[in-house]
Amino acid sequence: MDNQTTWQKIWAWIDYRGRREGGIGFILMRLTAIGLVVYLLLHLTMLTNLARGPEAWDGFIHLVEHPFFILADAVLIFGLLYHAINGIRVGILGLGWGSRLQAPLFWGAFALTVILTVAAVAAIVSIG
Amino acid sequence: MRTLKLRILRGSPTLGRQYQTFTVTLPDEANIIDGVEQIFGHQDHSLMFRHACHHASCGLCGARVNGRERLMCITPVSEFPDGATVTLEPLRNFPWVGDLAVDVKPLLQKMDMVGLPYSREDELADSPEPGNRFEDCIECGLCMSACPVVGSSTKYLGPAPLAGLARLIQEPREVDFSKACALGKSPHGVWRCHSAMECTEVCPSDVDPSQAIGWLRRFYTFKKK
Questions:
Q1: Which listed residue, A120, A121, B159, B205, has the most CB atoms within 10 A of its CB?
Q2: What ipTM describes this predicted complex?
Q3: Structural domains of chain A, count
């Protein structure tokens, strides 16, 4: 316990065994946070194509028109929405309000995330 | 009567770890601790586990039952179907002594650090040292085991000590809580909690540590200077 390795500490954060809504919500919050940071880095990297001229940018745009990126967009939107909506839940609970309602609040946040993700993907596909 | 297969994590930090399965037959009204005691009494006298009161008062028999932090003395076998396999493991986030036993000293040290002045009323008459236990909390350590932040940092005070601190501030009874109060708002105090809420979910004594941590945050944020 006193000599935990970094991997043991990371595992403690994502140890899903025996977790209920609050713990699962916590793990999802960590994973979506890492996902959003990775996306931000990718986004900035891709934007550097603008500096490489129109051909590089057009090539990149052609690449992301592949249907796979619709799926990637769905994952991104889910992560973004979950992190934001559950963040409000965590903010309320973190001030000591509604601790007995944390499980229904989690499912509410999760359901709202799914509904908004589906709506967003439908909008993207219809524009497509 | 029902028969259960108790799959118990055996070993110690020096001997390594492996699961061993024991078959026990128990009355329907028995609890998991009865099965563990049956193994200790009739099958393997080397089994290490902690227990005393058998009624959720001493807080010693905390373990993970099918992954979940529970007191074995109030986990009824009737929760499990006849013939089921039930996995028993020691608590997380404590030094492992062996088999189902962990060393809860880190929790007791942190409880000490926040200087708890309370006893439950029924203990005052007999206790050689009245004032050594925070009201409803039985110091079982389930919340410390379930908290993912305790698992990632040994310095974090953790749910039970912070709940005790909240109670101390709410009703100081002429105790100087300034030192404990400073500890609570240190980097390893209330602001380190990420509201995973597992502490409140597993607490067998209805202490609701997550609510208490939230109260402390409001106290630190809005109290008059």
A1: B159
A2: 0.84
A3: 1
